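Listing S7. Sequence submitted for prediction.
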Amino acid sequence: MLTAASRALFATLIVAVPLVAQGPAPQDSGGRSAAEFEASLRYQTGTVTLQKGLATLVLPPGYRYLGPEDTERVLVAWGNPPGSETLGMIVPVGKAVTDSASWAVIVSYDEDGYVKDDEAASINYDKLLRDMQESTRDRNEARKEAGYAPVMLLGWAARPHYDSASHKLYWAKELQFGDEGERTLNYDVRALGRRGVLVLSAVATMPQLTDVETGMQEMLGFVSFDEGNRYGDFVSGDKVAAYGIGALIAGKVAAKAGFFKLLVGALVAAKKLLILGVVAIGAFLQRLFRGRKPAEGVSG
């Protein structure tokens, strides 16, 4: 069981857990092969309604959607602990989630209130980046004590941009975890709504930047809030978020997230390093706190 201190520690860390394993063909908890696991997923195409009318995805031919239940299965298969709270996952057509070269976008919703965008035009993104880099360096001692390699925020892979007409924001970060030869790409889109923010987060490697950037730019166009939930539907008396655009980018609001919510986003970054297999939650948390790699041949 996680202690309050453990939750507090991980609520302040941006982590990518370096779990690596070599072994037999990956299997999910049902003992199925990667191909069988992929075939069991219930993909949707076309128009998809999220959370009973909160928002709509109008998927073009190149994309598919997995609902929350299948997304949970995928995240667990990637090595995340169960209990994720998402609105689903968007996956490019032709790329199986079991393929190490694949990438996907996790969709979630933060109902923290209406985020005012009046500061967007005046944000100094160079200074914001320096502040984020300093904050990341400051957390490295705690990361090392928790058994993780240090992380460096190298810079913007895509400079933040806010569209005041559509009330959508995007940016991307280039990260280096320890001595890993391949740098990590964090690409984020936020759609601002009446009562909260729709979150689309893709994590891949830097060589995938072109594919991911193209995909995320397309998603800006096919993701929208439904009537009554749109940014322009705000009325006096609605809840207003305690943070603005700059805090969304800096990730300061992540500090208030619960352990599992934060961990999901972190472990997606490590997805390409994880054997596709379900890890028992007890053993997983033991490795997590000890900073150990899983034994060879781990399976569900």
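Caption to Listing S7: primary sequence and predicted structure tokens for the chain studied. The chain has eight helices and ten strands. Confidence is low (pLDDT under 50) at residues 1-29, 253-267, 271-300.
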